Amino acid sequence: MTRIHIPPIKCQGIKSKLVPWIRDIVQWNDRGRWIEPFVGSGVVGFNIAPHHALFCDSNPHIIAFYAALNTGELTPGQVKTYLVSEGKKLAHYGKAYYYEVRERFNTTYQPLDFLVLNRSCFNGVIRFNSQGKFNVPFGHKVERFSKAYITKIVNQVEVVYKQAQLSQWTFLCQDFRQTLADIHPDDVVYCDPPYAGRHVDYYNGWTESDESALCTLLKQCAGKFLLSTWHHNQYRGNPYITTLWTEFHMFTREHFYHVGAKETNRNPVIEAIITNFIPRQLQATPSEMKYEQLLLLEREMEYAVNVR
Ligand SMILES: C[S@@+](CC[C@H](N)C(=O)[O-])C[C@H]1O[C@@H](n2cnc3c(N)ncnc32)[C@H](O)[C@@H]1O
């Protein structure tokens, strides 16, 4: 059974449930670098567990948190102490304390406050207003940081921390164009950009020109790449599938998103993975059978910590 480690940071579009599928397509051999221009929560790369990796994102707060764990500047012990003390204050002062932390974060941008907000805000989303200020409301639970919940978060932190200490990982806050400017033949690039029109905020705009720039850069990619995108939902299809990505290989399957309170946000989306290579297991398979075979290859999985 495959174990999926859930990372300490939550974000919209988190791909926890797609990790086994991505891993089966990649067949990672640890020869080159694992590169993620849109790392988000990090769930994909952290579960691939590469020795060399470049993890990037345009959101400086995600990068600052993971970079601090990577350098050892922030340890699981410090995270625990902070969550215990902030949890007590939240339980004592209630909702008002959440807003105090939010205000403090929007002035000092401390990685530990980012974690506190991310794990106590409404629905665990990351959203910044047009001034770049975190603006997600309180998640309603003043007893949020129970002993069990703190242990769960600290365990999640510890997995990333230990892996980072044993590996050669780099975290950079930069635009995907910069990340994709220097890809080597042994590298594998996993791209998971925002889906146009969904979850737009200060760090998450996505336009047709972004998608087209991404396509141009991935066409020139010297290594292998995988792109996560959506194929269709019950209302419409992704127009870029037939206009931009036609020359690559594509695999699809259903994914159920759990972020967002509204029922409409919980509708299934047919996810697509677009690649510039044929997965090794399918190389000798007639093309019309490839998709079904890939589904059969997916292993039973177990989530190390609850998937929210
Ligand atoms: C769908 S999320 C990635 C989710 C991630 N794969 C996971 O499973 O957690 C997209 C990420 O792209 C980042 N992003 C948005 N625009 C970007 C850009 N122009 N360059 C780099 N990163 C960007 C966002 O901050 C966000 O973290």
UniProtKB/TrEMBL annotation:
Domain of life: Bacteria
Name this polypeptide is given: Site-specific DNA-methyltransferase (adenine-specific)
Xref: InterPro entries: Ade_MeTrfase_dom_2, DNA_methylase_N6_adenine_CS, M_m6A_EcoRV, MeTrfase_D12, SAM-dependent_MTases_sf
Keywords recorded for this protein, A-Z: Methyltransferase, S-adenosyl-L-methionine, Transferase
Family: Belongs to the N(4)/N(6)-methyltransferase family.
Catalytic activity: a 2'-deoxyadenosine in DNA + S-adenosyl-L-methionine = an N(6)-methyl-2'-deoxyadenosine in DNA + S-adenosyl-L-homocysteine + H(+)
EC number, UniProt record: 2.1.1.72
Pfam family membership, one: MethyltransfD12
Gene Ontology MF, one: S-adenosyl-L-methionine binding
Organism, scientific name: Vecturithrix granuli
PANTHER family named in the record: DNA ADENINE METHYLASE
Top-level class of the enzyme under EC nomenclature: transferase
One GO BP annotation of this record: methylation
